Amino acid sequence: MNTAFILILSIPIIEIYLFIKVGSKLGAFITISLTFLTAVFGLTYAKYQGFNTLRSALSQLVKNEVPIFEIISGATLAFAALLLIIPGFATDFIGVLFLLPFTRKLIIQSISKKYKTKTYKNEKDFIEGEFKDMDEK
User: Fold this and answer.
1) Per residue, what are the HEC states of 47-59?
2) How many CA atoms lie within 13 A of 1 on its CB side?
3) CA 105 to CA 79: how far, in whole Å?
4) Domain spans of the chain, in order of start
5) Which residues of 85-112 are buried (b: 16+ CB within 10 A; e: fewer)?
6) What are the distances in angstroms from CA 1 to CA 4, 6, 14, 117?
7) Is 57 in contact with 74 (CB distance < 8 Å)?
8) pLDDT digit string (tens) for 86-95?
9) For 83, which of 40, 95, 107, 124 could close a Cys bridge (C-beta 3.0–4.6 Å)?
10) What is the predicted pLDDT for the residue at 117?
């Protein structure tokens, strides 16, 4: 089966299971309150981290550097905010992992190692070729 299809089916099942378990221990009102509280806290913290990432990206642009890590970090923060909006404890946990700078950096590094392009030792930093000045005859 397709991995996305399995994820689409398994995430709601896990969330419902966790709602039942937490609700039976803490009660329905506290469970619902925790869901809203994590969403509000997570979105507030995501906004704060997003502004920090934007500030860092702007400082790199001033230095004429490409802010690649900040772009990826911003996308990760947007995904974390989406996970925190979705009600549930498992998605909130994963969203908080993406929000924290230390774990976000580890996740981005592990994914980038997987897709990193290989460089060869025999590559040169220049292209050989010939030219002809068309103005001189």
Assistant:
1) HHHHHHHHHHHHH
2) 8
3) 14
4) 36-112
5) ebebbebbebbbebbeeeebeeebeeee
6) 9, 7, 19, 29
7) yes
8) 888 999 999 8
9) 95
10) 64
